[in-house]
Amino acid sequence: MSDTSDTVVRPAGFPSGAAPGPLRRYGPWIVLALLLLVLPRVFSSGLSISTMCVMGTMIIFALSYNMLLGQSGLLSFGHAVFFGLGGFLTAQMMNMMAGGEGPLPLMVYPLVGGLAGLVFGVIFGAVATRRAGTAFAMITLGIGELVTSSALILRGFFGGETGITVDRTEIHQVFGLSFGPQVQVYYLIAGWCLVSVIAMYAITRTPFGRICNAVRDNPQRVNFVGYNTTVVRFIAFSLAGLFAGIAGGLASINFEIMNSAQMGAAESGSVILMAYIGGVGNFAGPIIGAIVVTYLHLMLSDLSDVWELYFGLLFISMVMYAPNGIAGVIMMQRPLIRRGQLLRVAPYYVLALIPGLVALAGLSMIIEMTHQLSISASEGLGMTMMGIAFNADALLPWLTAVVLLGGGGWLGVRAARLAREAYGAAMVRGRVQ
Amino acid sequence: MRKLFATTAVALTVFGAAAVPASADTVKIAFVDPLSGGAASVGQMGLNHLKFIADTVNAAGGVNGDMLEVTGYDNQVNAQTSLVQVQKAIDEGAKIIFQGNGSSVGIAIEEFVTKYNSRNPGAHILYMNYAAVDPAMTNEKCSYWHFAFDANVTIKMEAMTNFIKDQPEVKKVYLIDQDYSFGHAVADTAVSMLKEKRPDIEIVGNEFHPLVKITDFAPYVAKIKASGADTVITGNWGQDFALLIKAAGQAGLDVKWFTYYAGAAGGPTAIKQAGLDGKVFQVNEGIANLNYGPAMETTKAYTERYKDAPTMFPRVFNAMDMMVKAMEEAKSSDPADFAPKLEGMTFQSFSNGGEMFMRADDHQLFQPIIISAIGPVESGQVDEENTGWGWKSVGEIAAKDTIVPTTCDMKRPG
Amino acid sequence: MAEILFFSAVNGITYGMLLFLMASGLTVIFSMMGVLNLAHASFYMLGAFFGFEISRHLGFWPGLVLAPLIVAVIGMGVERYGLRTVHKHGHVAELLFTFGLTFVIQKLVEMVWGKLPVDYLVPPSLDFPAFTIFATEYPAFKLFGLLASIAIFLALMLVIKRTRIGLIVQAALTHPEMVGMLGHNVDRIFMLVFGVGVGLAAVAGVIAGPALVTQSNMAGLLGPILFVVVVVGGLGSLGGAFVASLLIGLVQTFAVAFNISLADVFGPVAADSGLALYLDDIWSVTVAQVAPVLPYLLLVLILIFRPRGLMGNRES
Fold first, then answer.
1. What is the CATH number of domain B154-284+370-401?
2. Chain A contacts of B306, Cβ < 8 Å?
3. Does B187 touch chain A if contact means CB atoms closer than 8 Å?
4. φ and ψ at B102, to 5 degrees?
5. Residue B248 and residue C302: Cα distance in Å, rounded?
6. Which regions of chain B carry the CATH code 3.40.50.2300?
7. Which of A323, A371, A431, C41 has the fewest Cβ atoms within 10 angstroms?
8. What is the pLDDT of residue A14?
């Protein structure tokens, strides 16, 4: 009874249309390639290039995860295992070939990670995909724990908790590329990212991709039609391992260090967050999620000591109120645009957003003040938010926070209802016209 | 609240903003330690120390007329995240990276800094390591751009065994350590050094347990008890130490404990709960009750400013004071200029004024090591974690008696 | 050797009963609602921290009663306003909701109590050695924990076998759809069951807190083991959960007692072979070192040889 047949995830993807012309078919990819090409010229600081490198890796990782969750309805809690094993094998291979001994240029090393991911995907998949639903989730959780714990015991291969380090410049060099400068690594990652994204998109369009969707939506019927659902799940699991391995390989080239924390439960959790916040029902969702979550992960921690809590709250509210993620919210606007109704609804969105932000400010005041009173008490009770200084134990800020949260929340709920009604009305109007 | 919410705008513009050059009259120090999540309290104490020292130096006119500016970056105890944070710090003009918590992060930063300097001509980023103690950092992975200010595993074991050497009642030793590289380093050096200095000591157990995974140490304590050991040597820290001590207290295990991190947060509380008065020893670079004048004055000034978190890290003072001295000698705050002054420098220890020196061969600081035991203290003396128990020195090992060989093959620039 | 065997057995049973205290609630919730509450261990942690906070002001015993009650109320709120909203989005969404909850609860606990262990003391009335055997003392508090677990286990059995709600729960274990069709107020029963289930986890937390450790990672440490218990026992089987709890408790404590490695059995690995560096690690690892991995190995083995779990009677 715990299987995933009644999930609301729907197959979707861009671009759509019955018989796409060449421009419609290839246009988005050419635009994406050009975008990847010029990005480092627009954002040229060392930090932005480093950040984009992480994002590129995470896009592959999140998309590979969505082959399981979004496409096949398999909730895995141990996906980082393949990311990590791919990264470790790439790093070991690089160390073996260091000093320019091997004939392979650095560009092909992520394939080592991919192969490792595939091999381990086949091994673990053989065990895990025998079950679906909750049992599958628990097995992946167990496999994740098993592999991470073993990694700490097998210090010779995994380098203990400090991990293993590599030097990417010592690999056989071609075209005069040393891969010392970060921007060269950026183009390497961007290239692999583009290839992987196209490959994973192509998979969703194949009959196999469709069968995966069918297994997700109604495994019983797929069985009746004559497909073996276990085999379908197994292939999807292995392929997801392949792409996660490529992402891991890229990560170890990018950071030149790989350690067991990279395949632990936290990493597995963060890929769930990326895929889900972005939106599992849409092919582009995990891409958006990877970019947003990576950015927040790197930048939010400078703003608040308890940024992870905001992250968790964001995730829970997405699960409750926006189960199709950011991409789902964007896709909801498509019919409005097509019917020329977006501008009529937009004011309602703004109307709902303002009290929403007020409520958020109230909530964050409560969180930050609680934090100041408990953990940060050693630094005194004085604190500053939005340029206003106050004491965390004073009555006025608490009153303000409660009023902001309560008032904003109440107004927000009412405005949201209005926005929903406006959305519904606009859809009806569009249909009538 | 570490930072203003108003800095949101700043953070949002970081994307796309070109590197901000450091202004001429500030020396930017980037503190890359855990500053969010549950480990934040440890990192925050380090940051408090740096800010306190920077303010003291600035009040006295700065370094060569330049002001020190300390900025915190959250490493989230994750090697890969910390590298992005170091990149952020470099973009914002920092040339000195301070880090200590997380050996995995330490090694990642050490390698990153070395590669960054060799790949970017003219870049001189220096890594000041105040707490990461993996011996690899000053041996096979040693770097010219890295200076280690905490005594590493081998040095502390050298001091510990030099102390045990003169304790005739120690006859049967049990080793229990966490199953990762640090724990293995502790066990391996203990075995080899005891064998050399006290061949009569019998090692009755050499146990490794999983790192931060055990919730009940009772089975391990039963094993120690069964072995007939009179002394336990352990490198355990954090909950693995607290729980081990707790289980020992519950089972009534009566042995001496030689430890690396009994003084770390949570340790003293657990020792007092277990009632092990004078049975637990720790080996480190300084404790509160040494009655050394200058240190006591600074401690007083510091605890007045940070009333609720009075824990002192002497090594942060050592590191900062030595760095400032090197900058003044070199009349420059560029690491390329002052690093040569820092290597080989001799200095007086913050804790007891004893002599210490930075070995040029591997950039490891050698300093007096204090062996101390915990028990009830009289009023007026410093206690730990409000337990009424505090550390008292039972032996001091001079820097020259802690020297261990290094395999470092230092590659100097140029 | 006899003393190690004895203490391993006692410790293993104590630990196993603690696991069962949590696994029972988890199993009943799963059987009735079809959702595996990933946040179950987080409620155990909340129990420990509430118990600690109450013990600081009122003492241990009020904590033992109040903390589980508070947690049960929180759990009912979570079910009423969270899970029920998510239910319409399907089972994956429900799982993800409880997953998100583990994250939020952990961060909240870290925000309020920090990441270091808190000083949760054994109550003075139980702070003495219960008995001394082989010159090793066994703390009375642990014995109390064992007895309390057994008492709750018996009470639970009585409720399930004798009361009306128990009958409904029992029916739901085997025929979940039918119960709803018979017209019972399923919503209210769900809320009650969820509250009682997480309340039991909180009792385990209050008992385990002083005996083991009260720290923000305690949920993360125990959670995965708990899920191993319910999968190995067979999803939805109370008897299976009981056997699996004891089995895993004993396996973990007994493994610690043995220092045997492959090298001891087969002799050291040939040093000149190229793979010696990597093989050596596997070869010299002792059973004690891999103790925490054993439950997961057990999980994989069970799934290969008996996919329904020890006593499970239906596919998930």
1. 3.40.50.2300
2. 378-379
3. no
4. 100, 105
5. 35
6. 7-151+295-366, 154-284+370-401
7. A431
8. 44
**Antiparallel, parallel or unpaired: β B256-259 and B280-284:** parallel
Residue ranges of B 5-34 with Cβ closer than 8 A to chain A: 5-8, 11-12, 14-19
Q: What's the Cα-to-Cα distance from C55 to each of C146, C167, C219, rounded to whole Å? A: 20, 36, 20
A142 touches chain C (CB under 8 A): yes
C297 touches chain A (CB under 8 A): yes
Partners of B79 in the β-ladder = none
Q: What is the ipTM of this complex?
A: 0.83
pLDDT tens figures, A344-368: 788 888 888 888 888 888 888 888 8
Q: Where are the domains of chain C?
A: 2-305
Dig out the tokens for A147 from the structure: 């592999």
Structure confidence by residue, pLDDT tens digits, C123-163: 887 777 777 776 667 788 888 888 888 888 888 888 888 88
Query: Is the CA virtual torsion A177, A181, A182, A183 positive or negative?
Result: negative
User: Chain A: nearest CA to B70, how far in angstroms?
Assistant: 14
Give the residue from chain B lying closest to C289, CA to CA.
B209
Q: Which domains does chain A have, with CATH numbers?
A: 22-323 (1.10.3470), 334-432 (no CATH)
Q: How wide is the angle at C-alpha A109 spanned by C-alphas A106 and A112, nearest 5°?
A: 165
pLDDT digits (tens, 9 = 90+) for C255-299: 877 767 666 666 655 555 555 556 666 677 777 777 778 888 888
- Judging contacts by C-beta atoms under 8 Å, the chain C residues touching residue A319 are 86, 89, 93, 96-97, 100
Q: Which residue in chain A has the smallest CA separation from C85?
A: A320
Q: What is the pTM of this model?
A: 0.85
Name the minimum distance, in Å, from the CA of C137 to any CA of chain B. Answer: 5
The third-level CATH classification (topology) of the domain covering B7-151+295-366 is: Rossmann fold (3.40.50)
Is any Cβ of chain A less than 8 angstroms from the Cβ of B4?
yes
Residue A298: its chain B contacts at CB < 8 A? 81, 84-85, 88
